[in-house]
Write a structure and sequence with these properties.
Blueprint: H1 2-15, H2 18-25, E1 29-34, E2 37-42, H3 45-54, H4 56-67, E3 72-77, H5 80-86, E4 105-106, H6 125-136, E5 144-148, H7 155-169, E6 175-179, H8 180-192, H9 196-204, E7 209-213, H10 222-237, E8 241-246, H11 258-266, E9 268-271, H12 277-290, H13 297-306, H14 311-328, H15 334-341, H16 353-364, H17 368-371, H18 378-394, H19 399-405, H20 410-426, H21 428-442
Parallel strand pairs: 2-3, 4-6, 5-8, 5-9, 6-7, 7-8
Antiparallel strand pairs: 1-2
């Protein structure tokens, strides 16, 4: 009768999301099938309760389809002896899903950020071709690439895909994947600890491929800019590969050293635009397939029509639909998709910088006059920086226009955005404030 449970698991695997099946169904152990009752054992009480509440009806229905007869279902927990036999040893190292690849230096490369997982469309075909060409050729006249796009459109994916490809095809190549902030912190630390020579040697002599993200964060960091310009010169002269990514063109990054600006602008600059409708459909279909999740065309069409901002929004919407379906144990249809999407998009009111100013002023109890004044009091500076950050996040206004709305230069606006982004990571109070204001904006509660 264990073959019956094996066949039943195969049927359940087709009906459930892959992560749901792995978490709740796969650990179940067949006990017996006697007198029309199928007895299964779960690893613990929590798992048993979850299976009974969420998946018992599905198991019974699939069992009836397989056997043609109605069976009862009994769910127990594994005995201690059987648990030792059936469950993996605690000393055994389990392979965790989605493990990242560690290059020779810097951050991990995300496992699924590869060329074959990148959906190519009219919005990004040139950037994809340029990145693949740079990664595939051992020697090339064009060894540098500057990927330009707003957040969430795929520049990080392409940058890391280059790293994956090179590590796969040329294992001896030394790939360094870092952010501009990582590079700055490492340089400052090397100066403090009298290890500048080691720092220079690492990037100038021991690096074959440099992948550096968020280059705009070097704005105003003159010493770091000089060091990076020297590093780039050394890498260029040695025929090494360098890929930069940013939300801004080199010419639009304020307080940037002319030498560094020139070097960033000397290579190929490729823009990535938001995906069109057809590309959004393909992105959703690929992401659903990667998760072994079946989704109908009408749901795909709905999500692609509503979620138009960027790839991250598409992924968030899809995962929201999958998660809600799994947690509630209901099928995916347009009605379910609508319930997820309505929490993500705002259509009733137009979000403007003036609207954001009013929301921020009310929350922080400051006046509009204070917000755009020259005051440097902390009680005024933080609301101003948060308002600038939210203006950048929720409007399409360029940085220069945002700065002008607050009587600031675009360099100051960029500094404000960077300050809030760092504060969100390090200060729970700032994170809570920004999250609260974001929810008000996204719910059109203004």
């Amino acid at each position: 009768m264990e073959n019956l449970w094996s066949d039943l698991k195969k049927a359940l695997k087709q009906r459930l999301a892959s992560h749901t099946f792995r978490m709740w169904i796969e650990p179940i152990v067949f006990e017996k099938c006697e007198e029309g009752v199928l007895t299964l054992s779960c690893p613990n009480q929590f798992s048993k309760r979850r299976v009974v509440e969420q998946y018992s009806r599905l198991i019974e229905a699939e069992l009836q389809l397989l056997t043609g007869t109605v069976h009862g279902l009994k769910v127990t927990t594994l005995s201690r002896d059987k648990k030792r036999k059936e469950m993996p040893s605690l000393n055994q190292q389990l392979q965790l899903p989605n493990i990242q690849v560690q290059p020779h230096s810097g951050r991990f490369l995300k496992k699924d950020y590869t060329f074959d997982q990148f959906v190519v469309g009219g919005n990004n075909d040139f950037a994809y071709t340029a990145a693949l060409s740079l990664a595939a050729k051992k020697k090339s006249d064009q060894n540098t690439l500057f990927l330009l796009s707003k957040t969430g459109l795929g520049k990080s994916h392409l940058s890391q895909a280059v790293g994956h490809h090179i590590l796969s095809e040329f294992p001896t190549e030394r790939v360094y994947y870092v952010t501009a902030e990582d590079f700055t912190n490492e340089m400052v630390d090397s100066f403090r600890n009298n290890m500048v020579g080691r720092f220079k040697k690492k990037y100038q002599d021991q690096c074959d491929v440099l992948l550096m993200e968020d280059i705009h964060y070097l704005s105003g960091k003159q010493r770091t800019q000089v060091e990076l310009a020297q590093t780039i010169d050394t890498l260029f002269n040695s025929g090494k590969k360098v890929i930069f990514s940013s939300c801004y063109l080199p010419t639009d990054i304020p307080r940037l050293d002319d030498q560094l600006r020139s070097r960033l602008s000397s290579g190929l600059i490729s823009n990535i635009d938001p995906p069109d409708y057809r590309t959004r459909i393909r992105i959703l279909r690929k992401k659903a397939a990667n998760r072994s999740f079946r989704i109908t065309d009408d749901v795909l069409n709905y999500l692609a029509g509503e979620l138009t901002e960027d790839v991250r929004q598409l992924n968030s919407g899809l995962m929201g639909v999958i998660s809600k379906s799994s947690l509630l144990g209901v099928p995916v249809d347009v009605k379910l998709a609508e319930s997820v999407v309505k929490c993500m998009i705002h259509q009733k009111k137009t979000i403007t910088i003036d609207v954001i100013k009013k929301i921020v002023c009310k929350h922080f109890n400051v006046t509009l006059k204070d917000l755009i004044s020259k005051s440097r009091k902390q009680a005024i500076v933080r609301p101003r920086q948060v308002a600038i950050f939210l203006s950048r996040k929720y409007t399409d206004q360029p940085l220069q226009s945002i700065g002008k709305c607050f009587n600031r230069y675009h360099a100051t606006a960029l500094h404000a955005i960077g300050t809030v982004e760092k504060g969100i990571k390090k200060n729970p109070v700032i994170q809570q404030q920004v999250d609260f204001l974001s929810r008000k904006i996204e719910s059109c509660d203004f």
